[in-house]
Amino acid sequence: MRTVRALVLISLVLTGCGAGSASITPVGATEYIENRGSDTLVNLALAWAEQYQQEHPEVRLSVSGGGSGVGLTALINGTVDIANASRQIKPEEAQQAQAEGLQPTEFVVARDAIAVIVHPQNPVAQLTLQQLSDIYSGQISNWSEVGGEDRPIVRLSRETNSGTHVYFLETVVRLGLKDNHTLFSTDTLLLPSSEGIVNEVRQNPNAIGYDGLGYVPPDLKTIAVAHGPGEAYVLPSAATVNDLTYPVARDLYMYTAGQPTGAIKAYLDWILSPEAQLVVGRLGFVPVARGAQP
Amino acid sequence: MKDPDGKSTLGDRAPEAGRRFNWGEAIITRLIQLSGYSAIVFVGLIFLFLVRQGAPALFETPLAELFGTRWYPIEGYFGVLPLLTGSLIVTVGAMAIAVPLGIGTAMFISEIAPRWVREILKPLVELLGGLPSVVLGFLGILVLSPYLRLFLDLPTGLTALAGSILLGGIALPTIVSIAEDALDAVPRAYRDAALAVGATPWQTMWGVTLPAARSGVLTAVLLGMGRAVGETMAVMMVTGNAPVLAVRLSSIVSPVRTMTATIAAEMGEVASGSPHYHVLFFIGMLLFVISLVVNVIASAVVFRQRSRSERILS
After folding, report:
1. Rg (CA), chain B
2. ipTM for the complex?
3. CATH code of the domain occupying B84-242
4. pLDDT at B296
5. Where residue A158 falls among pLDDT bands split at 50, 70, 90?
6. From start to end of chain B, where are the E strands?
7. Any chain B CB within 8 A of the CB of A10?
8. Which residues of chain A are within 8 Å of residue B237 when distances are taken between CB atoms?
9. For the whole model, what pTM was predicted?
10. Contact (CB<8Å) A191/B70
11. Which helix (H) or strand (E) is A196 found in, with range?
12. Residue ranges of domains in chain A, CATH in brackets
């Protein structure tokens, strides 16, 4: 009994750390690429590195997390070749880079969209960002206030340590405003996994939840979201995420110092190839359309 | 612990090998002693480590905030009261379920069931104790919480009650097993005497056997409680983990967040040395102190029982 629990804990801890850092170093490598940054991207970057090294054993890739800021700082300091970021480079970071004589080059390598999900029998099909914010901050707590049945709203969220939680907080609950300090309502259920949210939404008609678009099973109802009242309600899909009409989506970036050359350029070209973009879909992100690249 | 007689007999039997054998004996005695002390050393070291990592929380976070009512660590809200009350309400609920059921089962197994039933039941109950709590958690998510929501007409089934029921199930085998041993240890003469003066079987059980075994039964309850307070996985899966202050009666059918679930959910991603990290260890300290208190009470009860029986015998 004790051992089983300990094992489960250890494996949880390991998966937790897995997102932190790892490096893959095959023998006989000649080229070395250092890749660091966003924790949102780290699993995707690892999957890419793993697959790329199988096809190109002469390249040695090292991938680690730490956060977008950590990656970009390292790029500016010249300690990494590619920085992963779940946000665009800030003006002050760009200035720092220019002071060092670097011109950061941006690549959109994948997109991340959050789908809002409800029970299939819930008549509510569309919500504005403001309504979603009011629901999650506790100001709306009955479905009848947003055009549904007279039922209490059960709010489901990922745990606070999830990148998805933070992104949802910033983009939806706080409507993307920097000076907005709205918090999740205290009675928001914080579930430790995507499956927990999907399970509860599947069987509870009161529930509302959110999850990465790639993780939403087809038997749940996805809510169409509008920026504001009077604007078009958009269902999330690869197409609406890529044409930027779905409001709860963001680009995921890789930055290089100046125009990439040699092995780094070959790696980034491969990342944007259909083959590598398949991995994107498998990990729950949205692949970027070929034409969207500069 | 020491056994000089054993040494001399062995020495007599094999005089030429005696010296070497005594060495082996001494080493083994020392090893056993060492493993006995190691438990104390480990507990001490663990507590020291907890204090080292957790005590800074008392200085970094103002006390009023630390014992505040809002837990939202990524924005610097470190109020542990919702977690403390969450753990308490789930544990109290679990005890309300497990104690009557556990003692009832123990009484049935020990006093009523025929021998063959007893020989099946007891191992079965102990098998239940070996079920991994993750498995129970899965049952809780997929079966228990949907039915709780439907039967009690709740907004969601992921509530303190769901956690209490699962924890009751987890604490039950501990309570049954220890309480049954205690009831079994009551001398046969007690029961015979009660029956002989005309008590019904129920009066014998309730008025004689159970009170005679009460220290053991109390130990069973306290150990079951220790088990319930510290349980993590199953609770994290079914209680909804919403950090709401659980002080009203209706809190039992609302989502709550326990201390153990908080540590398990947040420790993996927290920056080492940050205020959040120290607060998580502080919660660990609170848990340690709670289970220490429960265990000290349990052993005090056992100790009292022993000294009383010694008094009677002497």
Report:
1. 25
2. 0.78
3. 1.10.3720.10
4. 87
5. confident
6. 71-72, 77-78
7. no
8. 192, 196
9. 0.76
10. no
11. helix A194-203
12. 13-110+253-282 (3.40.190.10), 112-249 (3.40.190.10)
